[in-house]
Amino acid sequence: MRKGRQYEDFSVGQVIEHHWGRSITAGDNALFSTATCNWNPMHLNAEFARAHGHHNFVVNPMLVLCTVVGLSVEDLSEAGGPFLGVDACTFHRPVYPNDTITARSTVVDMRESKSRKSTGIVTWHTEGHNQRDELVIDYRRTSLVAKRSP
Question: pTM for this structure?
Answer without folding.
Answer: 0.92
